[in-house]
Predict the structure.
Amino acid sequence: MAEAITVSAAVSGVENKTLSFEAGRLAGQADGAVVARMGDTTILVTATAARRVREGVDFFPLTVDIEERMYAAGKIPGSFFRREGRAPESAILTCRLIDRPLRPSFPDGFRNEIHVVGTVLGADQENPYDVIAINGASAALSISGIPFAGPIGAVRVAHSADGEWIPHPTYAEGAESTFEMVVAGRVLDDGDVAIMMVEANGTEAGWELYSNGTPKVDEAALAEGLERSKEWIKEAVGLQRRLIATAGVKPPMEYELQVDYTPEVDAAVAEVGADKLAAAMSIADKAERQEAESQAKEEIAEALAERFAEVEGVDKQISAAVRSLTKSIVRTRIVQDGVRIDGRGAADLRPLGSDVGVVETAHGSGLFERGETQVLNITTLGTARMDQMIDGIDPIDKKRYIHHYNFPPYSTGETGFMRGPKRREIGHGALAEKALVPVIPSMDDFPYTLRLVSEVLSSNGSTSMGSVCSSTLSLMDAGVPIKAPVAGIAMGLVFHEGQYTTLTDILGAEDAFGDMDFKVAGTADFVTALQLDTKIDGLPADVLAGALNQARDARLKILEVMAGAIDAPRDDVRPTAPKIIKFEIPLDKIGEVIGPKGKVINTIQAETGAEVNVDDAQDAGIVTVSSPDRDKVDEAERQIRLILDPPTADVGEVYNGKVVNITAFGAFVNILPGRDGLVHISKLGRGRRVDRVEDVVALGDDLEVVVEDIDPNGKISLKLTGDDSSDDRDSRRSDDRGGRDRDDRRGRRDDRGGRDRDNRRSDDRGGRDRDSRRSDDRGGRDRDSRRSDDRGGRDRDDRRGRRDDRRDDRGGRDRDSRRSDDRGGRDRSDWDGPSQAASFEDDFETQLRDEFGDLGPGGGSHRRGGGRGRDRDRSPR
């Protein structure tokens, strides 16, 4: 096994952060391979080049791939196949981040295919891997022998709550900052750093920190941050140079620079076509300009066809020379005459337009136009459960604010395939999304998931910044209380003949022909996002500061136009949007709101038509109620709050209730929100015997009931309205008792089995154990076997004889006349007054506990009998 060569260095300005590179041990067949680390975040970056140019290639084929392996974070992929599939959005954005500073670092005319692959081996959930990957890619190319003008260094800096720039922030440090910025550059011979790429955005915490006094990140702060980043870029470049010196560089690869046209063809095109192309490039309208340019190109080709008839591939050479001449004409006109392709001055904006409410059925919609660029944005609001789940290797596992960007071929007047979003669309959508993150309200302030979709309807320059503007319009039209409107503008820069010229609101052609383009988004007070790419070595600080201030002037003008369409978010969401409220409930009330097997919450949803979700947070339950109908939301909230603070029932009052549960001993009826009562099976037959509760009532039946009794623990006993049989029974029990004192009753119970009260668990049930009580209530079981268990094996005849004697002593009451109840055939006088009340309440408590478990404090120790026999002596006999 080859020996690893490792170099490392501490990051200045912070503690316990070290960047390291390792080469020589892994991926030996790649042209260059480097393992880059910070903390325990580890990525293997390889660089490989094709030895021949693919035929017909007229561009530089650089490909960057990032492979996020789930094992890096100790996870198994959540897909059906349990294997990584298409690269996630985070990996695609990292690919673009690496590509942008690398691409201009290869020689002009180099056409060999280059493939850079980054495989994430370790993700420590603290240090992001993207900036480490940029440095690793540069190091791999630098030792590979591939022609590469490196090394290139990169750093992420975060603007802290104290107003300081922190290098290489962790995820936590970034979340606590106001602004994050990734900067990549190359160290020049004079020791300065040429900034090549910037990707920056505000954070969710930014607005709150600004409100608490943290300095805002404006154009001046951005310029300061770029200057501060140069220090750490130099450190990264210096470490790569140490690796190059230690590990060495492979022999330079052989390659041949491709020439797009010969000097003879170039001179002939300039001679024949300069005036034609100059006239074409002065046409303001894009379609007309492109048609004139195409016609001029055809005329030039026809004029030179005979002169270069013997030159192989002359048509491609002429086409390339025409493009080069067009670029030169545009740049010279801008710098020397101060006039751009469409006739504007350097700082002029194209005509602007804004509108809202474009799509009636949408929750929010905004249309933004800037010249020929037109973007329609649609906002859709959903519940918290509609947020995006992210199965990745970083700590971010969900998103509630989502922005998608679509760029169809018709937006440029072309045909093409539409097979899902490409990398460019994902990158532009992410930039527009980041621009609005600092002003999006929190979930506590606005309990919605937000999905925004930008449809590019027409494109001629910076549709990503058009998406920022249309997103702001759409959000305010949807009633989303954003903290401030955000607008964006695309800027360009031309460096020609030693002169810098900054362009506001660049066209697509100016983007292609310029030396730098940068996009700036923000509110009237601070910057929320920035993206910068430059093709020149070094950008003077005063030029950059002037460009940022010029962009701010344009941004403020755009915000004024947007305010003409809508100057503040609507007071409420649109009628088509769901109405959502969120509130907290005590943790111990979650079970009551949900109910057994979800019966309570399902009933609320069925009755109101609103969607109700209950989640448990760390110290409270979170209830979310949603519906397009505000009245339904209010009614569901009312019912839930009644459960939290339920109304009390009154004895003797009549209620219209619904059967919510059926047990062997009766039916539970909901009479008030959060208040259920029991109609015992003995009270369902209106005086006749009922074998099964289901024979009389079913779940969901409406019953008119009377509150018969409420025990000290709040248990409610009900009976059907118009049922006087229970009152008659109470009267007969009183007569049967005839003044017999409590001791006489105790004596008779003792005579029935001689069991003491301790063995009966103080339950006043005449010596029967709990299982036999259930048997009595449910009927149909063998009386002999039951009494054999209770009475120690005494024979049946002896028992019958004693029962007959007792019946004779009690007045010879007819057995059949009193067997209509469910007491297993015993004479009603056997379980008169207090005994019957105890049997009903004990069965209620016992079977309720068996079915549903512990019902809370006092669930098994209340004084049985409710209002009947409350003064009964509870001490053991």
